[in-house]
C-alpha cells in the first residue's frame, strides 16, 4: 500500500523477480496467474515516474515502460522481469509476444542494432541478441538472468521445433530440435528432444537416423521409455521383426520395474526448459504405454509373423491381465494400442487354432458369443438417412447417437459371427464335420442374412461401411467353410449351393470358384465343371489382382480364416480337368 518510490524500486523489482521464481520452484510449474505480479510491478514503475497504464494490456504495458522509463538503476531489474515475462509467455506458446518483448529489450539498449540475419530463426536471434545486464552484488538473484536466457533459448527452439513437426515442415523442425538439443537443459528434457528428433527423422523416411536419435535418448535417460516404443515402431517399419520383438520385450520388462526415485539433474534452477514446453504433440510423442498394451503388441506381432507358439503365450498372459482390472488401467480416449476386447479374444482364438489347441479356441470363442448375444437386436436397420447429420439441424445429436449405436451393434454382430466361424474351423480340424456345419450355420444364416441384405440392397451410411465389409467377409468364409464340410460328408449338392452363394457375395473369388468346380466334379457334372474351370482360368488372375489392391485389410482375427478357406488342391484339380478336356477332345469326331 506504500506509494512507489524510485529509490526503492530496484530492490522492489528484484524481490518480485525472486519471489516469482520461488513460487515456480515450489509448485514445479509456471502458473499463469502468477504473471499478474509482473504487471503490478510495471504499474508501480509507471506510478513512480508519474505515468499511468491501468487500461493497457500486458504487451502494451511493457512497450510503454521500456520506451518511457529511462532511469538507469531500473534497467537491469526491468530486463530481469522481462526475461521472466518471456518464460510465462513461452509456457503459453505466445511466441509472437516473446519476440516482441525481446525486440523491445534489445532496442532499448541499442536502437541501431540488427538482430536477425536472413535464414536465421527470428525468435532465437532476438533472444540471443539480448544483452543480459550485469547483476549488482547488493541485489542478488536466486536464478541468474544469464542462465534464464539460455533456458529461454532452449525452450523456444524446442517449442518451435515441435510446432514445425506438427505442421509437417520436417527439415525446419529437425534444425530447430537440433538447436534445442545443443542448448542448456536437464538430461530429462534432452532425452525428450532426442526422442522428438527420432520421430522427425522417421517421418522424413530416415529410419537409421531415427534410431541414432532414439538410442541417444536412451543413453541420456534410460527412463525415457517412450523412446523405446518409437524404436520398436522404426524396426516395425523396417520389417526387422526380431529387433522389434526384442525391443518390445525390453520395454515390457522395464515397465514392470519400479522406476528409481526421480532426482533433479539441475536442482538450483527454479525455472527449467521442461516447465515451459507443453504441447499436445509432445504429450502424444512421449505417451507412456501401459505394460498390458505392450504385452498385446507382442502377441499381435507374433501372430502376424507366424510365431504361433509365442503368440499364444502372450495372448494368454494378456487375457489373464483382464482379471486384474485392465479396463481401469488403460486409457479409453483412443490413444491406446489395444483394439476392442472381443477382437483380442478372437485373435487369441485364431492363435490357439493355429497352434492346434482347437478345444481351447472353441472355449475362448464361446466367451465372445455369450457376451455379445444379448447386445444384438432381432432387426438391424442401417439406412443412409443417418449418415453424417448436420450438427445445426434439430435432432442431429440424437441421430449421431443412433448411428454410433448401430455401429456398435454391427460390431457385436460381427464378433459373434466370427466366434461361430472360428468354432466351425476348430471343429473341422477336430474331424467333427457335423458339428462344424452347425457352427458355420449358426448366426451366419439366421442373423447375418438380414443385416447383409439391408447393407447390400439399401444405401449404407459411409461410417458403417467398414463393419458391413467385415460382415460380408465373415459370411463368405462361413459359406466356404460349411461347403468344405459338406464335401467331407459327401453332400455335394449342399456344398454346391454354398459355393454358388459365395460367388454371389464375392464374384471371382478364387477359392469359391475352385470349390464350385470341385463340387460339380463330385456330382459327375464334368462338362459344367470344365466350363467353369476354363472361365475361372481366364478371368481369375486379373480379378484376383484387382481384389488384392482394393478394399480394407482384414481384421487380424479373420486372416487365419481366409487362409483356411483357400482351396488346397488346385494343381490336382487342374490336372483332372485337363485330362478330361484332353480325353473329350480325342473322343470328338473329326
TrEMBL record:
One GO cellular component, as annotated: Fanconi anaemia nuclear complex
TPR repeats: 476-509
Keywords tagged on the record: TPR repeat
Entry annotated with the keyword Transmembrane: no
Gene3D superfamilies: Tetratricopeptide repeat domain
Presence of the UniProt keyword Ion transport in the record: no
GO BP, sorted A to Z: interstrand cross-link repair
One Pfam family cited in the UniProt record for this chain: TPR_16
Protein name: FANCG protein
Amino acid at each position: 500500500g506504500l506509494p512507489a518510490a524510485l529509490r526503492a524500486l530496484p530492490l522492489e523489482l528484484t524481490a518480485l523477480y525472486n519471489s516469482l521464481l520461488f513460487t515456480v520452484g515450489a509448485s514445479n510449474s509456471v502458473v499463469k496467474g502468477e504473471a499478474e505480479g509482473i504487471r503490478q510491478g510495471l504499474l508501480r514503475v509507471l506510478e513512480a515516474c508519474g505515468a499511468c497504464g491501468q487500461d493497457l494490456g500486458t504487451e502494451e504495458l511493457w512497450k510503454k515502460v521500456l520506451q518511457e522509463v529511462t532511469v538507469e538503476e531500473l534497467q537491469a531489474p526491468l530486463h530481469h522481469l522481462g526475461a521472466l515475462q518471456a518464460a510465462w509467455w513461452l509456457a503459453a506458446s505466445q511466441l509472437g509476444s516473446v519476440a516482441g518483448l525481446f525486440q523491445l529489450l534489445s532496442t532499448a539498449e541499442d536502437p541501431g542494432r540488427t538482430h536477425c540475419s536472413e535464414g536465421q530463426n527470428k525468435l532465437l536471434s532476438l533472444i540471443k541478441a539480448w544483452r543480459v545486464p550485469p547483476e549488482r552484488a547488493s541485489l542478488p538473484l536466486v536464478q541468474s538472468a544469464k542462465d534464464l536466457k539460455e533456458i529461454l533459448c532452449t525452450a523456444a527452439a524446442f517449442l518451435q521445433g515441435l510446432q514445425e513437426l506438427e505442421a509437417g515442415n520436417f527439415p525446419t523442425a529437425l534444425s530447430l530440435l537440433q538447436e534445442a538439443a545443443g542448448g542448456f537443459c536437464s538430461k530429462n528434457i534432452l532425452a525428450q528432444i532426442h526422442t522428438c528428433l527420432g520421430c522427425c527423422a522417421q517421418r522424413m523416411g530416415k529410419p537409421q537416423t531415427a534410431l541414432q536419435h532414439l538410442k541417444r535418448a536412451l543413453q541420456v535417460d534410460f527412463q525415457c521409455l517412450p523412446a523405446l516404443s518409437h524404436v520398436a515402431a522404426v524396426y516395425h517399419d523396417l520389417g526387422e521383426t526380431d529387433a522389434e520383438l526384442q525391443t518390445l520385450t525390453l520395454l515390457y520388462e522395464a515397465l514392470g520395474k519400479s522406476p528409481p526415485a526421480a532426482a533433479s539433474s539441475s536442482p538450483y534452477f527454479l525455472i527449467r526448459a521442461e516447465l515451459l514446453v507443453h504441447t499436445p504433440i509432445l504429450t502424444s510423442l512421449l505417451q507412456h504405454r501401459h505394460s498390458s498394451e505392450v504385452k498385446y503388441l507382442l502377441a499381435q506381432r507374433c501372430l502376424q509373423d507366424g510365431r504361433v507358439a509365442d503368440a499364444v503365450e502372450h495372448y494368454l498372459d494378456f487375457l489373464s491381465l483382464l482379471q486384474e482390472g485392465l479396463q481401469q488401467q488403460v486409457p479409453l480416449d483412443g490413444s491406446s494400442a489395444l483394439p476392442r476386447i472381443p477382437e483380442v479374444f478372437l485373435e487369441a482364438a485364431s492363435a490357439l487354432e493355429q497352434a492346434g489347441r482347437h478345444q481351447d479356441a472353441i472355449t475362448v470363442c464361446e466367451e465372445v458369443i455369450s457376451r455379445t448375444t444379448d447386445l444384438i437386436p432381432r432387426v438391424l436397420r442401417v439406412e443412409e438417412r443417418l449418415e453424417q447429420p448436420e450438427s445445426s439441424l434439430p435432432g442431429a445429436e440424437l441421430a449421431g447417437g443412433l448411428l454410433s449405436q448401430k455401429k456398435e451393434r454391427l460390431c457385436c454382430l460381427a464378433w459373434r459371427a466370427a466366434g461361430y466361424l472360428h468354432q466351425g474351423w476348430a471343429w473341422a480340424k477336430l474331424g467333427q464335420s457335423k458339428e462344424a456345419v452347425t457352427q458355420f450355420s449358426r448366426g451366419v444364416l439366421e442373423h447375418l442374412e438380414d443385416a447383409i441384405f439391408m447393407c447390400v440392397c439399401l444405401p449404407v451410411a459411409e461410417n458403417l461401411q467398414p463393419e458391413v465389409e467385415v460382415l460380408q467377409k465373415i459370411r463368405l468364409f462361413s459359406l466356404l467353410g460349411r461347403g468344405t464340410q459338406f464335401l467331407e460328408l459327401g453332400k455335394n449338392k449342399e456344398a454346391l449351393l454354398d459355393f454358388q452363394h459365395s460367388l454371389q457375395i464375392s464374384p471371382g473369388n478364387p477359392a469359391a470358384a475352385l470349390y464350385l468346380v470341385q463340387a460339380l466334379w463330385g456330382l459327375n457334372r464334368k462338362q459344367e465343371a470344365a466350363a467353369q474351370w476354363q472361365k475361372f482360368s481366364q478371368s481369375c488372375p486379373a480379378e484376383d489382382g484387382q481384389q488384392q489392391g482394393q478394399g480394407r485389410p482384414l481384421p487380424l482375427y479373420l486372416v487365419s480364416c481366409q487362409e483356411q478357406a483357400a482351396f488346397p488342391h488346385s494343381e490336382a484339380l487342374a490336372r483332372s480337368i485337363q485330362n478330361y478336356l484332353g480325353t473329350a477332345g480325342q473322343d470328338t469326331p473329326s
